[in-house]
Amino acid sequence: MNKEAINEILENKHQKLFDWIKNQPQDSFQKGPVGKWTTGQHIVHLVNSIKKVNHALSFPKFILKYKFGTSNREVRSYEAIVKKYQDKLSKNKEKAQEFNKKVSTPSEKQYKQLLTTLQIQNKKLQHKTKRWKNEDLDNLILPHPLMGKMPVREIIMWTAYHTEHHARILEQKH
Questions:
Q1: Separation of alpha carbons 3 and 133, rounded Å
Q2: pTM, whole model, 2 decimals?
Q3: If you ran DSSP here, which 8-state letter would residue 64 be given?
Q4: N or C: which end of the chain has fewer CB within 10 A?
């Protein structure tokens, strides 16, 4: 997937989430199915996730190369990344739950700030994607807590799917 397509999918997946949120009651951030995350917790999680990606992409490329190495394979398609993530989630439910155990429900003020932060972080990621060279997107790798080391291009595509994944959960269960 080229950079323009990645940015388009990032924008579309985030906009779909924001559109859903706009149509919810004002206090919906506090609500969720019994034993599951609230809407606010989903947003906290998405903000934390995209911030980590943006933070990693802020380092000089030589440091990323030194710390994590370079890819030894072809970049996967968006569909292949989605499938691998779904497989990993289904096989590692306990690990995913443990990883996300400490996510708390934000206050109303924090929730509104988080939504703004998510919009800003999405735009930052799109900007960084546009500015990176294709060679670096494909060759430099970053660690993912569930999927292992992935080329940067894949991490960015995963970020778009990750937003879709949580938006779908919200739409179906909230």
A1: 9
A2: 0.94
A3: H
A4: C
The mean pLDDT value for 7-20 works out to: 98
Residue 55: closest CA among 152, 148, 163: 152
Cα 115 to Cα 47: distance, rounded to the nearest angstrom: 8
Contact predicate 31/21, CB 8 Å: no
152, 142 contact by CB (below 8 A): yes
Phi, psi at 119, each rounded to 5°: -65, -45
Neighbour count for residue 90 (Cβ, 10 Å): 9
What is the percent of the chain with per-residue pLDDT over 70, rounded to a whole number? 98
Cβ-Cβ contacts under 8 Å for 73 (sequence gap 6 or more):
none
* SS3 call for 151: strand
